[in-house]
Specification:
This protein is an alpha+beta fold and 143 residues long. The chain is built from 5 helices and 4 strands. It has one domain (35-137): Nuclear Transport Factor 2, Chain: A (Roll).
Length: 143
């Protein structure tokens, strides 16, 4: 066997570095655990939105064009805040005002946070994938 057939030590290091970088880039998909109850599903969604982790928020959201559009609006509003504003939301606390079980598969959660005291409403529904948020349209927060 000649030296040409044996990869050099430097070549092995480059290959290892490339594999590590590729693995880090491809590792963006996280394995979130489905919510076991409505309160956990709502809390995970709210927390993800407040922290700016909209891919995690999407995991805890009922799929559908209307929900995806509302989530994009929420993300746009979050990204438009200055650095200090985003930091305030990341460190804010969630205040659960009321939890109303409409039936075994649907729960309404009224909440605010320590930065935005306006009460908002989320509808959380039970599906095969766990408890998922069905974002209530802006004008239907009264209940």
């Amino acid at each position: 066997m000649t030296d040409d057939c044996v990869p050099s030590l430097q070549m092995k290091y480059w290959l290892l570095l490339i594999l590590l970088v590729a693995g880090a880039c491809g590792g963006r998909q996280r394995n979130y655990q489905p919510a076991e109850n409505a309160l956990d599903g709502g809390r995970e969604f709210i927390d993800a939105c407040m922290k700016g982790d909209f891919s995690r928020a999407a995991f805890f959201m009922l799929p559908g064009a209307a929900n995806e559009e509302r989530l994009k609006e929420m993300e746009r509003a979050y990204r438009e805040k200055d650095k200090e504003g985003r930091q305030q939301y990341r460190t804010a606390s969630i205040n659960i005002k009321e939890v109303t079980e409409l039936n075994a598969d649907t729960t309404l959660i009224r909440y605010s946070n320590t930065v935005d005291l306006n009460t908002k409403t989320l509808k959380v529904v039970h599906k095969e994938q766990g408890w998922l948020v069905d974002i209530v349209p802006k004008d239907t927060t009264a209940h």
